[in-house]
Design brief:
The complex is a heterodimer of chains A (290) and B (159). Chain A has 290 residues and is α+β, with helices and mostly antiparallel strands. Helix content of chain A is 33%, strand content 25%. The radius of gyration of chain A is 19 Å and the shape is globular. Chain B is an alpha+beta fold. The N and C termini of chain B lie far apart (51 Å). The chains are: A alpha+beta (290), B alpha+beta (159). The A-B interface holds A 1-6, 8, 29, 32-33, 36-37, 40-41, 49, 51, 53, 76, 78, 101-105, 107-108, 189-191 and B 1-2, 5, 21-25, 44-47, 49, 52, 55, 58-61, 63-66, 68-69, 71, 112, 115, 129-131, 133-135.
Chain lengths: 290, 159
């Protein structure tokens, strides 16, 4: 690896100051599973890695039944899928965190890193979107918040400006009769990049028969992960019969604008979108019904 | 050149300190500076698991951990797996079960399996295959490795 500096600020303000000073030549180091490889393979030209893991806020998980969940940007995946309240209330996050790389990667990789890396195929991003995640961003002008679906811009690009970094992801308080799920398709059994990913959230009424809210998100079918409002609206107010699920799947297929590459051609990916959306809704429904 | 960083940590239950360049990975420091050459460089990008070590109780690829990050941490490498009484059951079972040929992947597999057994004392075939998906072997195939891990798990449980 080329000669670089390593900085380990202990406060948000210190991290912002370094990132502001160095601009594009600085990059936040969370789990490092993307960044270290990118720098070593000359895909990213850096002067300094800014290790944020000494900042308490970025390593914390906080849950409150009324306020919701906050996950520090650098919290490793295993802490997410081993957290009792996340397992209970936010199973879509557990699905995603359990699919990122293998065990070794899950010891280090984080939701924040997966999101900031802004891969169209990031396995956690559809769940972050489906679960109404909000990015808490620190920068030279103070804090700001951005909905996760507006965070990624294009492959590898996000909305962070000079001096800014992602501190945490916030999720609303758990809603009654709600289920979330994430599914992806890969040709192997594990350790691969999604050909298509689908994240879903479904909320049922008190009788658990009618859908009153839904969100559907897709990965690997556009330059950035998508929130597909049309797929969700074909579920809302419905009784979630096979026909409703088929309509949602069709809406998701229409919204998908995949490219053809080594992982799958566009037509195949569109087909997969329909299959995965339907299956993910079915799992989310089972979880919503409890 | 960037200024070297002084790091204090625990390696295989012994206090250790080293000076590293900020650009060095944990794997590079272990192998090139501390002469702990059990961890191997396979892919050097986090895919193959040959460089596995246990960092603060968690299995990691040491090629994608910066050396400067381990300040204050506990690192366990393959050199710390056997003790004064002899080989660890995993090491014995890998030998007896012929679960290696060239041996490059073996230290990584043994540390990964050690982390597995610590979490799941009686791993099923599926548990082993899923957990060890991040460790690649290009010689033996995986059946003998899985067999050795399950055999070792039994020995560990019987202790």
């Amino acid at each position: 690896m080329k000669d670089i500096e390593y900085a380990a600020p202990k406060t948000v303000a210190e991290a912002v100051a370094i990132l502001q000073d160095k601009g594009d030549k600085a990059r936040v180091l969370a789990g490092g599973t993307d960044l270290i490889v990118q720098v070593r393979e000359h895909r990213r030209d850096l002067d300094v890695m800014v290790d944020i893991k000494k900042i308490p806020d970025v390593m914390a998980i906080a849950f409150d039944a009324r306020k919701g969940l906050s996950v520090g940007a650098a919290v490793p995946c295993y802490q997410i899928y081993e957290h009792p309240e996340i397992i209970k209330h936010y199973p879509g996050l557990v699905d995603s965190a359990s699919l990122v790389g293998g065990i070794q990667i899950q010891s280090r990789a984080s939701l924040g890193g997966n999101l900031c890396n802004a891969s169209p195929a990031g396995d956690t991003i559809p769940s972050l979107i489906a679960l109404e995640g909000v990015c808490v961003i620190a920068g030279p002008k103070g804090m700001r918040e951005v909905a996760v679906e507006s965070f990624c811009v294009s492959p590898g690009k996000n909305v962070l400006e000079r001096g800014e970094f992602l501190v945490a992801l916030k999720f609303p308080a758990p809603k009654a009769n709600t289920g979330t799920a994430y599914l992806r398709f890969i040709p192997r059994n594990e350790m691969d990049i999604a050909v298509v990913g689908a994240g879903v959230s479904v909320t049922l009424d008190a009788s658990k028969t009618k859908c009153i809210a839904a969100r559907v998100s897709l990965a690997a079918v556009a330059p950035r992960p998508l929130l597909v409002a049309e797929a969700a609206s074909s579920l809302i107010n419905g009784t979630l019969t096979e026909a409703h699920l088929d309509k949602a799947a069709a809406a998701a297929r229409d919204a998908a604008k995949p490219i053809s590459d080594m992982r799958g051609d566009a037509e195949y990916r569109k087909h997969l979108v329909g299959v995965l959306v339907k299956r993910a809704i079915t799992i989310a429904l089972e979880r919503a019904r409890g | 050149m960037s200024k070297k960083i002084h790091v204090t940590c625990t390696i295989n239950a012994k206090e250790a300190e080293f000076l590293c360049e900020p650009r060095q990975s944990l794997l590079e420091v272990l192998r090139d500076d501390l002469r702990l050459t059990g961890a191997k460089e396979g892919c050097n990008n986090g895919n193959c698991g040959a460089c596995n070590v246990i960092l603060d109780g968690r299995l990691v690829n040491s090629c994608i951990v910066m050396a400067a990050e381990v300040e204050g941490s506990k690192v366990e490498t393959i050199e710390g797996v056997a003790d004064a009484k002899g080989l660890h059951p995993l090491q014995k079972c890998f030998l007896e079960g012929a679960a290696l040929q060239c041996g490059i992947c073996t230290p990584g597999f043994i540390l990964a399996a050690k982390a597995l057994i610590a979490k799941t004392p009686e791993p099923s075939d599926h548990d082993c295959r899923l957990w060890l998906a991040g460790n690649l072997c290009r010689c033996t195939g995986y059946d003998k490795i899985i067999g050795a891990v399950q055999e070792a798990a039994k020995l560990c449980a019987a202790k």
